[in-house]
Write a structure and sequence with these properties.
Helix 7 (about 160-175) crosses helix 9 (about 200-210), helix 10 packs across helix 12 (about 275-290) and helix 12 crosses helix 13. It is globular and about 60 Å long. It is α/β, with parallel strands linked by helices and about 325 residues long. It contains 14 helices and eleven strands. The strands form four sheets. A five-stranded parallel β-sheet has the order 2-5-8-1-9. Strands 3-4 form a two-stranded antiparallel sheet. A two-stranded antiparallel sheet has the order 6-7. Bound molecules: adenosine-5'-diphosphate (ADP) and magnesium ion.
C-alpha cells in the first residue's frame, strides 16, 4: 500500500501509534529517500499554520522580516505529515484542499503560484465523520484525504499485541539503563488485565517506570503501576453526548448565554458529565486560543475575579485535559 503513493488518513485514539505508522508508510514508499516533515495542526493559529505549510513572503505579517519557505517546499519529493488534522481550522482546510486538488499554492502574502510534489499523510484521533456533521470539517477535504484510511484499534482491543510490544519496549529500555529486564508472568497478567486508555504510549510509560524501580532482573507485579490517564474527550464521543456538547456550545456562543448558567450549574447538578464539559471547553479554546479570550467567548465575566474563578474550576475538575 505504501508503494501506491496515495494520500493516507490514519485514525485511532491518542497513543495507538499513528505517528509511527505515518513514518513507516513514508519509509516503505517511493519517497523514502526524501524528507518526512511533521506538522501538528492543533497548536497553531490559522495564520501560523498557513505560514508553516506554505511559507510566507517578506512583510506578510508583523515580524515576517524575511521570506520563509514552508514545509511543502522543504519536503519537495517527500511527505508532509499533518498530525491532528481534525483540529485544522476551516480557513486552512480550504487552502489545503486547493493544494490537494491542483498541486498549487501561494506563500502567505504572495501571489506567485508555486507547485510542490508532496505526498500528504494525515492523522487524527477524532471521528471526522462526526466533525463533518458538526460543520467543523469540510467534506470535500475529507474525501481528498481519506483515499486510503487506516484505523488503528485501541490497545485494549488487541491485547494479544501486549507481550510483543512489552518485549520491544523493555529491550529498548534495557539498552538505555544498561540492565536487562524481563517481565514476571504475574506482571504480564497485570498488563493484560488493564484497560489502557493511553494505549501504547501508556504501556511505554508504565514499563519505563517499572524498569527503574528495584534492581532485580525481573519486573514484578508491584512494579507495575497505573496512573489515571484521562480519556481523550474526543476519542469516543457517543452521538447523544456530542449533540449535548454542541447544543450547549451553541447556546453559549450564538445564544450569548453565560458558561456559568449553561454549563457550570448543570455540571454541579450532575446533569453534565465531566467529559462533556471538557469537550465544550476544548471547542471554545480552539476558537478563542487563550483562556482570557475564552472567558469572553463564553460570556463568563469580565473581572479578574471571574477569570480566577474560571481557572480554579478548570484546575479543580481537571477540565483542561
Ligand atoms: N507497534 C509499535 N511498536 C513499538 N512502539 C510503538 C508501536 N506503536 C506505538 N508505539 C510507540 O508508542 C508511542 C505512541 O505512538 P505514536 O505514534 O506517537 O501515537 P499517536 O500518534 O497515535 O498518538 C510512541 O513512542 C511509539 O513509538
Ligand atoms: Mg501522534
Amino acid at each position: 500500500m505504501a508503494l501506491c503513493d496515495l494520500p493516507v488518513l490514519i485514525t485511532g485514539e491518542t497513543g495507538v501509534g499513528k505517528s509511527l505508522v505515518a513514518e513507516l508508510i513514508h519509509q516503505s514508499g517511493p519517497r523514502a529517500s526524501k524528507e518526512f516533515i511533521h506538522i501538528n495542526c492543533s497548536n497553531l493559529s490559522p495564520e501560523l499554520f498557513e505560514s508553516e505549510l506554505f511559507g510566507h513572503e517578506r512583510g506578510a505579517f508583523t515580524g515576517a522580516v524575511e521570506r520563509k519557505k514552508g514545509k511543502l517546499e522543504l519536503a519537495e519529493g517527500g511527505t508532509v505529515f499533518l498530525d491532528e488534522i481534525g483540529d485544522l481550522h476551516l480557513y486552512n482546510q480550504g487552502k489545503l484542499l486547493l493544494f490537494m486538488d491542483r498541486g498549487i499554492f501561494n506563500r502567505l502574502g504572495g501571489n506567485e503560484d508555486l507547485r510542490a510534489n508532496v505526498r500528504i499523510i494525515a492523522a487524527t484521533n477524532k471521528d471526522l465523520r462526526q466533525e463533518l456533521k458538526k460543520g467543523k470539517f469540510r467534506q470535500d477535504l475529507y474525501f481528498r484525504l481519506c483515499v486510503v484510511e487506516i484505523y488503528i484499534p485501541p490497545l485494549r482491543e488487541r491485547k494479544e499485541d501486549i507481550p510483543i510490544l512489552a518485549e520491544e519496549i523493555l529491550k529498548k529500555g534495557s539498552h538505555r539503563i544498561g540492565n536487562e529486564k524481563v517481565l514476571s508472568s504475574e506482571a504480564l497478567d497485570k498488563l493484560l488485565a488493564h484497560h489502557w486508555p493511553g494505549n501504547v504510549r501508556e504501556l511505554e510509560n508504565v514499563l519505563r517506570r517499572a524498569m527503574v524501580s528495584g534492581d532485580d532482573h525481573k519486573i514484578i507485579t508491584e512494579a507495575i503501576e497505573f496512573y489515571n490517564i484521562a480519556h481523550h474527550p474526543s476519542s469516543e464521543p457517543t452521538d447523544a453526548a456530542s449533540s449535548v456538547v454542541f447544543q450547549k456550545y451553541k447556546e453559549i456562543v450564538e445564544g450569548k448565554k453565560s458558561f456559568w448558567e449553561v454549563v457550570h450549574k448543570p455540571f454541579l447538578r450532575r446533569e453534565l458529565k465531566r467529559e462533556e464539559v471538557v469537550e465544550i471547553i476544548q471547542m471554545g479554546l480552539k476558537e478563542a486560543k487563550t483562556y482570557k479570550k475564552l472567558m469572553k467567548l463564553f460570556n463568563a465575566g469580565k473581572t479578574y475575579k471571574d477569570y480566577k474563578n474560571f481557572m480554579k474550576i478548570i484546575r479543580h475538575h481537571r477540565l483542561s485535559s
